[in-house]
Amino acid sequence: MLAVLVATLPATAIEQSQTTQKVSTSEVTTASEDDFVLGVYGNANEDDTIDMRDLTYVKLIFFGKKTDTELADAKYDGKINPLDFIQIKLIIVGKEKELTVVDDAGRIVTVKKPITRIIALSLYPAEAIRMFGEKDKVVGVYHYLKKQPVYFPELSKLSSVRGYPWDYEAILSLEPDLVVTWKYHIDELEEKLAGIPAVGLCFYKPDTFVGALKKLGYILDAEDSVENYLGTYHDKYIGLVKDRTMGLPAENRPKVYVEGSKSYKTYGAGSGADLYTKIAGARNIFSDLSGYPEVDPEEVMVRNPDVIIKYLSRYYKYDVGYEADDLSTMKEIWGRL
After folding, report:
1. Superfamily holding 20-229
2. pTM of the full predicted structure?
3. Which of 87, 114, 201, 316 pairs as cysteine with 261 (C-beta 3.0–4.6 A)?
4. Cβ neighbours of residue 89 under 8 Å, at least 6 residues apart?
């Protein structure tokens, strides 16, 4: 029996005041959310946190007992010396005056601290900032957020800086200390906002979510909030699901077709939907394709999914989500599928 699910969700993508360079993310990250490298300078031993072990490690590098690592240069000044010892100590206690991170676009960005004025150019960092208890620092938002007053009652009242292409004059007029967005169009953003740090973070994929959350946590001195969320919710429940699905043979995994708001626009290998489908114990019927391909409807029939998941969004003019009381749109699309 074919199951059809119609879901609503946010639309996805679509120096020393700031020092920005490019770095290969493979140098400082790994593919697994369970075993990743925290992309923050000061993480000398390149694990998933910054603690006293990093201080010990960078001292051993300084004295020639350990090999230099990409993230050991905590001050990001091109050399390993006692200034890095001090910087790591300050990061641990949340007193550093600046912090250098590798964002999810592979850019090295140095931000001045403390951060008091933030613009969120995506729903995902806005959710994270609110979870950290830092929503009062947000001064401007992605325009789609303003369409969700039920889910974002306070943030939806803030100034809009539009969606892409963003209103750069509006962003500049709000005088932010930090702009947080996804990784797309980040180079254009950097060019238009010279001197204002912009960090691209990917919260919508399971293989980058934890790293993005931790990096933003370090930027906002909210490490305790991050660890509390990961320990009491994310790791607990995602771990439970994985424990129950990781050993399932292919024949026991239902075949799933995931469709975006546009008809026959699906999610291939490496997409967030594809990765979450695997975690849930299912098989994405178009995992042999990459990215976000548009597929032939006849091919969907040939691959014969057991479950169809259709994403809808108010961004694409559907009357759905927390603000919708009339279910007729959902029912009509469900019937069409």
Report:
1. Nitrogenase molybdenum iron protein domain (3.40.50.1980)
2. 0.87
3. 316
4. 55
